Amino acid sequence: MTVRAIKCLIYLSVITILCISCNTSQYKEMQISLPDISAKTDGTYRGEVDFKSTPISVIVDVVLQNHVITTVNIIKHTCSPIGKRAEVVVDKILETQSLNVDVVSGATVSSKAILKAVEEALR
């Protein structure tokens, strides 16, 4: 491989990373809040999120009992291997009964996708 070809590969890699970063910045700032679940009946609710300009999509099933989130099952989470680390936000949701939880550093967009999917399920 020539030096010129190596420089082109490096350049293309940098451009790709910058494009992905720009596309994900809108999701990092996304506001998420827990809908009012006081009127929701017991049951399982499904939420889906597909962050279009990224490879990240999530499907969750959220189980409510007596107006309490008892279970959040991640049915599908398409992401990078680093994004899988975001799945621990489910434990935080159950512990705090809130979507106002810290996201996982390095997996911010996947964290937001999971939180947004839970919000959508409970709408």
Protein model, in words:
The chain has 123 residues and is an alpha+beta fold. Helix content is 40%, strand content 23%. A hairpin with a 2-residue loop joins strand 2 and strand 3. The longest helix is centred in the N-terminal third of the chain and has 26 residues.
Summarize the SSE layout with pairings.
Layout: H1 3-28, E1 43-50, E2 57-65, E3 68-78, H2 89-96, H3 108-122
Antiparallel strand pairs: 1-2, 2-3
Helix pairs in contact: 1-3
Give me a quick take on this structure.
This protein is α+β, with helices and mostly antiparallel strands and 123 residues long. 40% of the residues lie in helices and 23% in strands. The protein has a three-stranded antiparallel beta sheet with strand order 1-2-3.
Beta-strand portion reads: 15-25%
Largest sheet: 3 strands, antiparallel
The succession of helices and strands, N to C, reads HEEEHH
Radius of gyration, rounded?
18 Å
Number of helices, where a helix is a run of at least 4 consecutive DSSP H or I residues: 3
Distance between the termini: 54 Å
Q: How much is the average pLDDT?
A: 87
Helicity, as a percent range: 25-40%
The total strand number stands at 3
Shape: elongated
Briefly note the structural class of the backbone: alpha+beta
- Across the major sheet, the strand order is 1-2-3
Low-confidence stretches: 18-22
